[in-house]
């Protein structure tokens, strides 16, 4: 049985592969600032995208994206502010959620929520 760390790492790998196929450039994985962690930072068509990845092995207890609450959004936005300052970024940005449902053998569903919060 996979633990939460393994599930998270697997989800991020699936998310990176998905984003690359969709034309995104991956800038950072697991960007950390104080108590904030951003799973993926990507760029597409001049827009920096902060991506929260949520993966579950079933939807018995709800959809993966439902785990992104207001507190998590605030933590991600705090990390994004630090990243923007660190990189001196003044262009457009947005916050997305990638929701993944994967059983033991295959990905059943990937849903990309563009501009999910912020």
Structural features, described:
By secondary structure, the protein is an alpha+beta fold. The protein has one domain: Trna Endonuclease, Chain: A, domain 1 (3-Layer(aba) Sandwich). The chain has two helices and five strands, in the order H-E-E-E-H-E-E. It has helices at 4-21, 70-87; strands at residues 25-33, 36-44, 47-56, 93-102, 107-117. Strands 1-2-3-4-5 form a five-stranded mixed sheet. Strand 4 and strand 5 (107-117) form a beta hairpin. It is globular.
Secondary structure topology:
Elements: H1 4-21, E1 25-33, E2 36-44, E3 47-56, H2 70-87, E4 93-102, E5 107-117
> Number of helix segments?
2
Instruction: State the helicity in percent bands.
Output: 25-40%
Average pLDDT over all residues: 93
Gross CATH architecture:
3-Layer(aba) Sandwich
Q: Helix and strand string, N-terminal first? A: HEEEHEE
The number of E-state strands comes to 5
Strand-pairing-aware structural class: alpha+beta
Tally of domains: 1
- Give the strand content: 35-45%
Q: Could you please say which CATH topology applies here? A: Trna Endonuclease, Chain: A, domain 1
CATH class: Alpha Beta
Question: Keywords, please?
Answer:
single chain, 118 residues, alpha+beta, Trna Endonuclease, Chain: A, domain 1, five-stranded mixed β-sheet, 2 helices, 31% helix
Quick synopsis:
The protein has 118 residues and is an alpha+beta fold.
């Amino acid at each position: 049985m996979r633990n939460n760390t393994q599930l998270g790492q697997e989800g991020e790998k699936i998310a990176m592969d998905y984003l690359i196929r969709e034309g995104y450039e991956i800038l950072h994985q697991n960007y950390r600032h104080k108590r904030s962690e951003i799973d993926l930072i990507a760029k597409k068509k001049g827009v920096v995208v902060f991506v929260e990845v949520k993966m579950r092995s079933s939807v018995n207890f709800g959809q993966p994206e439902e785990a992104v609450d207001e507190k998590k959004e605030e933590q991600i936005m705090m990390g994004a502010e630090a990243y923007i300052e660190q990189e001196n970024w003044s262009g457009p940005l947005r916050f997305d959620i990638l929701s993944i449902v994967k059983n033991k053998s295959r990905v059943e569903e990937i849903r990309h929520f563009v501009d999910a919060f912020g």
